[in-house]
Write a structure and sequence with these properties.
Pathway: Membrane lipid metabolism; glycerophospholipid metabolism
Largest sheet: 5 strands, mixed
Function: Catalyzes the reduction of the glycolytic intermediate dihydroxyacetone phosphate (DHAP) to sn-glycerol 3-phosphate (G3P), the key precursor for phospholipid synthesis.
Distance between the termini: 41 Å
Number of helices: 14
GO molecular function: glycerol-3-phosphate dehydrogenase (NAD+) activity; glycerol-3-phosphate dehydrogenase (NADP+) activity; NAD binding
Pfam family, one: NAD_Gly3P_dh_C
Family: Belongs to the NAD-dependent glycerol-3-phosphate dehydrogenase family.
Bound molecules: nicotinamide-adenine-dinucleotide, SN-glycerol-3-phosphate
CATH topology of the largest domain: Rossmann fold
Strand order of the largest sheet: 3-4-7-8-9
Number of strands: 9
Length: about 300
């Protein structure tokens, strides 16, 4: 809906033809965003050739599906089109970030990343939202911000693609930990401690990749961490909450996409490769793979050696 502002026709492609037909018929996404009508310009389509006219393509699919979607889309992408990845995660099989996946699968496209604190329903309702758009070339980032911003959806530009991607991928994993603490009723103080120590992990990883401080402290880093760790509306937080309440990793998902569950192990591997300590993320990955209980994770985090705050 946001992307359609000021445009005559914005094709909305999806792989699930029944869902696309329902979107075209109902003019709303009854599955995920009931009661929020599609903007008139949005044209649901199952035909990828509809992308041929697009100067800007937004990739809004689960991180683990991004490669196959870009591969399918490539033959239809116009030369020089910008492909903006909106997925927050790391590809499990390759440990690659989304901008790398897009660059590998569609080398002719201009790659950009959109990330930041934004629940789809808030954006769709026209509530004020601010996020970061990063592209290697500042002029491209500025162009995309101008093209995609609306009065209520504010884009800040950046050239720090990796910093933006690290924030988006890490915050989902850390939000699972915060959800677990809430589900275990550990209290608001524990919650705040997890956000602060989680941010220390995100920042350490970002710095090891050369991410800029303003990115890590900004919308796509601290901003999205605070939103996702502090709201039951978050699917990652909700997954953690169910785990904290005693559900198994298999039960706790409730059929919703919680990207942190797919990215946790990859995040930990990426961190280990750079010798970065991420004990909270490690605990989440271990719980999700049934190597550790929630109780065991609490014990191991509380019993870590005392150290300087960094
Ligand atoms: N929902 C939000 O509030 C929100 C906000 C910011 C960023 N994101 C990010 O956007 C990405 C997508 O999230 P979402 O909430 O739109 O998820 P979603 O579960 O609604 O899925 C988005 C679309 O991807 C399609 N899809 C699923 N598997 C696919 C596959 N294998 N191949 C092709 N298409 C497939 C689905 O049919 C759906 O239309 C995630 O990485 C998420 O972190 C979501
Ligand atoms: O529902 P979540 O946990 O996927 O969070 C959605 C967005 O990423 C919040 O910025």
């Amino acid at each position: 809906n946001v992307a359609s502002a000021g445009r005559d026709r914005v094709p909305l492609w999806g792989h699930d033809t029944a869902h696309i037909a329902a979107l075209a018929r109902d003019r709303e996404n009854r599955r995920h965003l009931p009661g929020l009508p599609l903007a008139p310009a949005v044209a649901p389509t199952a035909d990828l050739s509809d992308l041929a006219e697009a100067e800007i393509v937004l990739g809004v699919v689960p991180a683990q599906a991004m490669r196959s979607v870009v591969r399918q889309a490539r033959p239809y992408l116009r030369k020089g089109a910008a492909f903006v990845t909106c997925a927050k995660g790391i590809e499990r099989d390759t440990l690659k970030f989304m901008s790398e996946v897009v660059a590998e699968e569609a080398p002719e496209a201009e790659v950009a990343v959109l990330s930041g604190p934004s629940f789809a329903s808030d954006v769709c309702k026209g509530l004020p939202t601010a996020v970061t758009l990063a592209a290697g070339d500042d002029a491209l980032a500025q162009h995309l911000c101008e093209q995609l911003s609306t009065r209520t959806f504010r884009l800040y530009r950046s050239t720090d693609l990796r910093g933006v991607e690290i924030g988006g991928a890490a915050k989902n994993v850390l939000a699972i930990a915060c959800g677990m603490a809430a589900g275990r009723a550990l209290g608001a103080s524990a919650q705040a401690a997890l956000i602060a120590r989680g941010f220390a992990e995100l920042r350490r990883l970002g710095e090891a990749w050369g991410a800029r401080q303003e990115t890590l402290m900004g919308l796509s880093g601290l901003g999205d961490l605070v939103l996702t760790c502090g709201s039951a509306q978050s699917r990652n937080f909700a997954l953690g909450y169910a785990l904290g309440g005693g559900e198994t990793p298999r039960e706790a998902n409730h059929g919703k996409l919680a990207e942190g569950a797919f990215t946790a192990s990859a995040l930990v591997e990426v961190a280990r490769e750079r010798q970065i300590e991420m004990p909270i993320a490690e605990a989440v990955a271990a719980i999700l793979t049934n190597r550790l209980s929630v109780e065991g994770a609490i014990d191991s985090l509380l019993m870590r050696p005392l150290r300087a705050e960094a």
